[in-house]
Specification:
Blueprint: E1 21-23, E2 26-29, H1 32-42, E3 58-61, E4 65-66, E5 97-106, E6 109-111, E7 121-124, E8 129-142, E9 146-147, E10 150-153, E11 156-158, E12 161-168, E13 173-174, E14 177-180, E15 183-185, E16 188-189, E17 193-195, E18 204-207, E19 212-214, E20 217-218, E21 222-223, E22 231-234, E23 239-241, E24 244-245
Parallel strand pairs: 2-3, 3-5, 4-5, 5-8, 6-8, 7-10, 8-11, 8-12, 9-13, 10-14, 11-15, 12-16, 12-17, 14-18, 15-19, 16-20, 17-21, 18-22, 19-23, 20-24
Antiparallel strand pairs: 1-2
């Protein structure tokens, strides 16, 4: 048995998280502990079969969620005592649907320049979808390929925004997505974006061949060696439509 706090974390075992209710095959995430449970569930690796068996799990947010209190976005990498680190939802390539239902996730913190592919999600499969979710007051810093919503996307990202701080030691850093092969529609970034030592980015750092960015904008501050407001690199078959940067 676990003694859960109000945010879904076990009071006695900090790495034990409350399991969300499952309704018709969709996990109903109502607090921070349940979000961490879902991330750990999707990231579970089956060593016997060399697979990630839960990458197609579906989830919705049923409430706004706050993980860490205080000025996380403005912390400049300095972790306050008691803050939890975030492990991106990886699962190699997420294939399910994550629907925020208009809710906001606040206070995610990640800072490790030995690691790349950092974001709320790390990798999104072409069958995967992230929609209707906002990220606020959060801080992500990695070596490269860092994005607020997703680091590396082949799938669909719709009606999402980032208002957190996104920074990389080297290159490919985007407020929304670092490396896009899929579709980003009706999204925006207002968070600060920084690449310390190399190529930077914008709302998305790299829009690859076949990638689409539509009806998006960026009003965040850009700091780095090579920055563009919406897309830093757009391949010849990439599409950017109805977008702007302030």
């Amino acid at each position: 048995d676990h003694d859960w706090d109000d945010n879904g974390f076990c009071k006695n075992y900090p790495t034990h998280y409350q399991k969300p209710e499952e309704v018709n095959g969709v996990y109903q995430i109502a607090n921070a502990g349940q979000l961490y449970w879902f991330a750990a569930y999707v990231n579970t690796y089956d060593y016997d079969n060399a697979t990630y068996p839960n990458v197609a799990a579906n989830a919705v947010l049923t409430a706004d969620i706050t993980v860490n209190e205080g000025d996380v976005a403005g912390c400049d990498g300095t972790k306050t005592e008691g803050w939890r680190d975030w492990t991106p939802i990886i699962g190699i390539h997420y294939m399910g649907t994550f629907d925020g239902q208009g809710h906001v996730i606040r206070g995610l913190y990640f800072n490790d320049t030995r690691v790349g592919n950092i974001g709320l999600f790390s990798n999104l499969n072409k069958e995967g979808k992230i929609q209707n979710v906002g990220l606020e007051n959060s801080y992500f810093r990695g070596v490269a390929y860092v994005g607020g919503i997703c680091a590396y996307s082949n799938g669909t990202i719709e009606n999402c925004y980032n208002a957190g701080t996104i920074t990389a030691e080297y290159d490919y850093v985007g407020g929304l997505v670092a490396n896009n092969f899929g579709s980003i529609v009706n999204c925006y970034n207002t968070g600060n974006i920084t690449a310390d030592k190399d190529t930077g980015g914008g709302g998305a750092a790299w829009n690859n061949s076949g990638g689409t960015i539509k009806n998006c904008y960026n009003s965040g501050t850009l700091t780095g060696g090579s920055m563009n407001g919406v897309v830093q690199i757009n391949d010849k078959d990439g599409t950017v439509e109805n977008c702007y940067y302030l």
